[in-house]
UniProtKB/TrEMBL annotation:
Protein source organism: Mesorhizobium australicum
Protein name: NitT/TauT family transport system permease protein
Protein's membrane topology: Multi-pass membrane protein
Pfam families: BPD_transp_1
Keywords attached to this entry: Cell membrane, Membrane, Transmembrane, Transmembrane helix, Transport
One GO BP: transmembrane transport
Family stated for the protein in its record: Belongs to the binding-protein-dependent transport system permease family.
């Protein structure tokens, strides 16, 4: 059996084993349903959410925040990362302020965003943007500064313009680091969307989690955690596939 087949078997067997242990623990120790529901109850709650259509508007709302937050945050992160990578002096001036903002706990900044931008969609997107832009910025800086020196010599020999040097050499070479930042940013956007809906939402997957938790509908809460996790994995793997396609020339 080759490595790919072993990996496929592992990916199937591991979740099944975890579910079996979960079921056995609940059954043997008679754990209350509101504390830890059995896997079957979580599966039933998940099916019910999709079958009666409850989840669809909330899923669309969360996806909208993720897409907007990821798009705006990535654009800001890339532009700022490009500027800082090309201008160390600018980085020395504004870098400390950016690091200060990044180290501030976003759960503490969220109430400020709500105060400044209101309880609506804007504050939720701003929170997602605040989580996305820094990893994308860091990846862009690292990528543009990691271009091999011999590529620069080649550009000099070919007398490439600054624009051609950027498009043909620097950006293609920086793709792995930029996508590393984008993949982290995508996960952060998902976390930011859920957190924003926890704090200020009347709609979205985060809101459904709060509703399920406060009404002791634990199977529904577990189902929402599963949906959110799968959503984050799907977005991450989509970016990984795009990165692989862009790097197919290597």
């Amino acid at each position: 059996m080759n490595n790919r087949a072993l990996h496929a078997v592992f990916m199937v067997v591991t979740p099944l084993a975890l579910i079996a242990v979960w079921w056995a623990y609940v059954r043997i120790f008679n754990v209350p349903r509101f504390v830890l529901p059995p896997p079957g109850a979580v599966g039933s709650a998940l099916v019910a959410l999709f079958r009666d259509g409850t989840i669809w508007p909330h899923l669309a709302h969360t996806l909208g925040i993720i897409v907007a937050g990821f798009g705006i945050g990535s654009a800001l992160g890339f532009v700022l990362g490009f500027i800082l990578a090309k201008s160390p002096r600018t980085e020395r001036i504004i870098g400390p302020y950016l690091f200060f903002f990044q180290t501030a706990p976003k759960i503490a900044l969220a109430p400020l965003f709500i105060l400044w931008f209101g309880l609506g969609l804007t504050s939720q997107i701003v929170l997602a943007v605040s989580l996305v832009f820094f990893p994308v910025m860091a990846g862009t800086i690292l990528g543009l500064r990691s271009v091999p020196a011999n590529f620069g010599f080649l550009a000099d020999i070919l007398h490439l313009t600054r624009r051609d040097r950027l498009v043909r050499i620097e950006l293609p070479s920086a793709v792995p680091e930029i996508f590393a930042g984008l993949k982290v940013g995508a996960v952060q956007a998902t976390i930011g969307a859920i957190l924003a809906e926890w704090l200020s939402g009347g709609q979205g997957l985060g809101y459904l989690m709060v509703f399920a938790g406060t009404t002791y509908k634990t199977p529904m809460l577990f189902a929402m955690v599963l949906v959110t996790s799968l959503l984050g994995i799907l977005i991450y793997q989509s970016l990984a596939g795009l990165e692989k396609w862009l790097l197919s020339w290597r």
